[in-house]
Amino acid sequence: MPAEKPSIKSFPIASRLRDGRALALDVWSVFNATNLPSDCINLGQGYMNFAPPPWAREAAEQALRSVEGNHYSPPKGRLRLRKALKEFYSPQFGRELDPESEIVVTSGANEGQYAAWTAFLEQGDEVIIFEPFFDQYLPSIVFNGGKPVYVPLHPSTEGTPGAEFGKKTWNIDFDELKRAITPRTKMIVLNTPHNPVGKVFTRDELERVAQLAETHDLIVMSDEVYESLVFDGREHVRFATLPGMWERTITVGSAGKLFAATGWRVGWLIGPPALMGPTSAATTRIVFCTNSPMQEAVAAGFEQARERGFFETQLREYVERRAVLVDAFERLGLEYAWPEGSYFILLNISRVRWPEDYTFPATLDGRGRDFKAAWFIANEVGVSSIPVSEFYCEEHVSIGENYARFAFCKDLDTLRRAAERLQRLRDFLV
Fold it and tell me: What's the family (predicted)?
C-alpha cells in the first residue's frame, strides 16, 4: 500500500503582500532572461553591461584587504563617504551640509526610501505618486501602512524639434494633482529625471508642486537617482533648493546610477535633521548598516570624479547611446517620448501586430496589450523591453499599455546590434 503524502501546512498571508502586489508575478519575472530566447538582447532591465570606474573598484579591494573594511560600518554610513557626499552636494544644495545630521547612507536608494516611509507613515496615510511609477514605490508604501494615490502623467502629442517621430515629454495635469490631495495626504513622491518616462521636471512644474506641498504641509520624497543624466542642456532642479522646501524634502541618491554599480547597493538620503533623524533610526533597525567595502568604493568615486571629469564624460557617452536608439525608432517610423534624462526611452508599440494564432504564455493572461507586444518583440525580433502598464494602477492601465520601455544603459556595440534587430519590426506594423 503506497505511503500517504504528507499534508502541506499553509498559513494566513499578511494582506500587505497582496495589497503591495508582492505576491503577483511581476514583470521582471515574466521577462526574465531565462524565459526569453538565449540570444535576446536585454534592453528591458536598467542595469549596465559595463563596469564602474576602476579607481572606485580599487578602493573596494583595498577595503577588503583591511580589517576594518570587512566589519560593521556606523549605521548612518562610513564617515569617509558622508564627508565625500557633503563635499559633492553642498554646492548643489546651496548650503553646508552636516554629515552627522543631514546625510544618511542606506543599502541602496530603495532601502532608504523604505526607511523614510517607515519613519513617517501611519496606517492610512496617503502618498501621492505620479504614474507611470518606479514599481518599488507601491510595496514599500503599502508595507508601511500607507495608501498610494495615483496621479497619471499624460503623453504629449506635440513633436520634438529636430525629430520626426519623437514627442515632447509627458505632462502633469495640476487640476488632477490638486484633486488627489486630501486631509489624509502625508507625502508626495517626485522622480526627476523620471523612470520610465525620461522626463526632467521643469522649474515651473516643481514650483507648483512646492506650493501645494507648503499649502497642505506635506513631506516630499524627491527621488533624484538619475541626477547625472540630464540631456540637451536642460536644468536639473533640486527640489530641496526651492524656497521653503529644504525643511520638508528628503532627497534620494544612488551609487548604482551614478557609478554604473547597481549591485553595490549603496544609496543615500539628504535632508534636514527633523527628517533624517527618524529615518536614520528606522534604517538602523531595518538593515543596521550598509556594506563597508562598497561604501569605501563610492567615497573614492566621489573624491576623484571631479578631477577626472567622470560625470561629464559619462554624460557624453549616454548622449551617444541615446542617439543609437532614437535613430532606430526614427527609421522605424514609430512614435516615442523624447528622453530628457535618465537612460530610458518609451516607444509607442500600438502599431505592432502579430498573427492571430500567435501563442503567448499563460503568464500574460489578464495583462495589458503591451505585455503581448513586448513578448512578441522579444521572441520574434530578439530585443527585450518592459511593458509600461506594469507601472500603473488598474484604473489607469490604458495610458501605459501603448508603450514599452527600452533602456540604453548598455555599451554601443550592444545598442547597435539591438537597433538593427529592431528594424525587423517593419514586417509587423500597421
Answer: Belongs to the class-I pyridoxal-phosphate-dependent aminotransferase family.
pTM > 0.85 = yes
For residue 386, which of 349, 430, 428 has the smallest C-alpha distance? Answer: 349
DSSP symbol at 225: T
Residues 288 and 325 occupy one common structural domain:
no
Whether residue 315 is found in the same domain as residue 217:
no
- Looking at residue 408, what is its pLDDT? 98
Tell me the per-residue pLDDT of 340-353, one tens digit each, with 9 for 90 and over. 999 999 999 999 99
Predicted confidence at residue 284, as pLDDT, reads 97
Q: Which of 262, 253, 243, 313 is nearest to 109 (CA)?
A: 253
| Residue 47 structural domain | 15-51+311-428
Residue 186 belongs to domain with CATH number: 3.40.640.10
Cβ-contact 199, 224 below 8 angstroms: no
Domain assignment present for residue 3? The answer is: no
pLDDT digits (tens, 9 = 90+) for 115-156: 999 999 999 999 999 999 999 999 999 999 999 999 999 999
Identify which of 277, 313, 5, 4 has the alpha carbon closest to the alpha carbon of residue 116: 277
CA separation, residue 260 to residues 86, 128, 227, 306 (Å)? 21, 29, 13, 16
Q: For residues 341 and 192, is the Cβ–Cβ distance under 8 A?
A: yes
> What is the residue type of 334?
L
Map grid coordinates 534592453 to a residue: 43
Copy the grid coordinates of residue 34. Answer: 531565462
Cα distances (angstroms) measured from residue 182 to each of 7, 43, 117: 48, 39, 18
Burial of 110 (0-12, 13-18, 19+ CB in 10 A): buried
Please tell me whether residues 168 and 31 are part of one structural domain: no
Residue 390's SS3 state is: helix
CA distance 44 to 169: 20
> What CATH number does the domain containing 341 carry?
3.90.1150.10
Last residue of a domain, one of 289, 308, 327: 308
340 and 222 belong to one structural domain: no
| Residues 284, 146 share a domain | yes
Angle at the Cα of 373 from the Cα atoms of 368 and 379, rounded to 5 degrees: 130
Instruction: Report residue 280 as a C-alpha cell.
Output: 536614520
How many domains are contained in the chain? 2
